[in-house]
TrEMBL record:
Localization, UniProt: Membrane
One GO MF term attached to the UniProt entry: protein transmembrane transporter activity
Protein name, per record: Bacterial surface antigen (D15) domain-containing protein
Organism of derivation: Myxococcus stipitatus (strain DSM 14675 / JCM 12634 / Mx s8)
Keyword ATP-binding among record annotations: no
Amino acid sequence: MLLPAVLLVILAAAPVKSPSRPAPGLPPTQTDSGSDIIALPMMTFSSDHGLSYGAVGGIYLYGPGKTPYAHGIGAQVLFSSRGVQSHYLRYDGPRLIGPLRLEAGLEYKRELRSPFFGAGNLSAPDFRGDVDNERYAFDKGAPGGWFRLRGRPFGPEHPLQSYVGYAWRYTSVDAYDHSMLTQQRPLGIEGGSTGQLLVGALWDTRDDETDPLEGGVEEIALRVSGQATGSRYQYAGITLSERRYVRLSSRLTLAQRLTLDMLFGDVPFFEWSNTGGVNVSEGIGGMSSVRGIERNRFSGNIKAFTNTELRFHATNLQVFGKSMKVGAVMFLDLGRVWHPGVPDGEWHEWHPGIGGGVRLSRRAAIVRLDYARSTETGRQRVYVTFGHMF
């Protein structure tokens, strides 16, 4: 049942307008008016969340000269078999205020048995892979909202982008009686609000934002939380990221990502696993940082991870009269953590994950199916989701 749902999403999500050729790093510009309305059932799977099911929808309003549309509104309702909920309502106005792009969203996340293994690169050495064990988990709720104003200060074809924004979230924490969280009682066990001021800049030379073959994007992002931003906790974070794409042949692309995230101050434990930037990740461990390792298996104030993918364009298929790109990927992920006051091991003690996968794509719609294995523990994980990892 999963594969038909995947094909339905790819074919139905394709834009119906005919785009013109974009400048490097920019999505196509719509040259006419009109609208698209998409509403689809959705089904994904990961070894961390289990089977997720729900619905996703979008409304896209087009206008002359708008890139890639005048207004976009998206919504999702998603539940998983392991008690995870992820719902959102998002708005995107690429040229709402002159050349400035306004992005905003309201979100609600609820996790039963959200992972907690303690801090540091050598945390929970007695863990044996039982992700449903209440010793390594807690229940979490996190409603919130955010907005971001992004632009290109030197013109629409210049690679420099800058942004400023704000995010607020209220995190509720329900710790189990005999869990590591109850025993360690780190800062943040009381829960509370985290308001963040967001500032960042990108240098984007990718030939395509959703499925790049050449170029790259470098990003520096700063987030600051304190009383003035409506936060219970006083801390700051810096994220440095490099993504690079090298076309080796007409069918083969080498993709590389490097990420360093550093937190300073009175950081609540539920922020240890988060990174900043336009496309946030979490870890170390999981489908957005190091595949093959349990989600957020290692976390702390300083996180570093690298992802190397060899992407192969195998063939194009015609499905219901639509062209679909079929590809394969091999990957190596590495990550590690540093945290004050706990042993982090030698500098070379990184946590690896290796594997391969399949990619199905139709224009901007990409489905990712990955199989990964931790070479440290031998444990295996499977992920089915949407979009490239980076």
